[in-house]
Amino acid sequence: MIPAPFTHIRVSSIKEASDALEHHGDEAKLLAGGHSLIPLMKLRLATPTVLVDIMRITQLQGIKQESGNIIIGALTRHVDIERSPIVRQHAPLIAAAAALVGDPQVRNRGTIGGSVAHGDSASDLSCALLAANASFVVSGPSGVRTIPAAEFFLGFWTTALGPSDILTEIVIPEASSSPWSYQKFTIRSQDWAVVSVALSGSHIVLGAMSEVPVRAEATERALASGASAQEAAQLAAENTSPSSDLRASAEYRQHLARVLVLDALTESAARS
User: Fold this and answer.
1) What homologous superfamily does CATH list for 180-271?
2) What tens digit of pLDDT does each residue of 176-207 get?
3) What is the pTM of this model?
4) Which residues, in sequence order, are CB contacts of 130 under 8 Å at separation 6+?
5) How do residues 227-247 score in pLDDT, each as one tens digit?
6) CA geometry: angle at 22 spanning 43 and 150, to 5°?
7) DSSP code for 58
8) CATH classification code of 7-53
């Protein structure tokens, strides 16, 4: 399909972008890689009249280490995260998740900030970042603030970002020695996850099992109490509310959650 008519504005600074969003209000959307927004526009599920193109804001790109954290600019492409020696060594879960986003075309154009800001519970990086205890640095009219991943995802395609806010950085605690695993079940390799599981240390997060990525808290508690991996994995779907669609029923998604959590526990134990 063809998107509704829109105006394209290109900006070169965070302030310009924030000012444009504030000026145009609800009619404006940020455009980064476009792999989340443009498909929605083609289906007329999103109909912004103004696109604020932020891809020329170079300060939002790049990866660095600082004070025990990995800091990734919001406009950093998936492929750069996947291949980064810093991320692969100190945040391997994030590198693994980035390597499974879409297909090579998507990974070479799409950005981590665009993926996260989209607020899809099936997003590979959203799931992994929650498990990694990441936080998000946001710039807006009231200044700069940091939002923990656990408070960022609010509902279906809804995040804590305000209408004039810009996600600028993702901060990930270094986890070189922590056990980790990323598991994903798809119909085709480039598809969104039917169900995904991200494990980092004692955190286990399920993707596509609710309106937001959710912790498998029953499994985490069971493991802390000494349960075996097999026993704990059977509790993975507790308190989840997956949807049924053409790809899978809710019951099958719950089955997949139990299978993938066991796979994640087995793989992470083998790395220890």
Assistant:
1) CO dehydrogenase flavoprotein, C-terminal domain (3.30.390.50)
2) 889 999 999 999 888 889 999 999 999 999 99
3) 0.94
4) 149, 150, 153, 198, 203, 205, 213, 215
5) 999 999 999 999 999 999 999
6) 70
7) G
8) 3.30.43.10
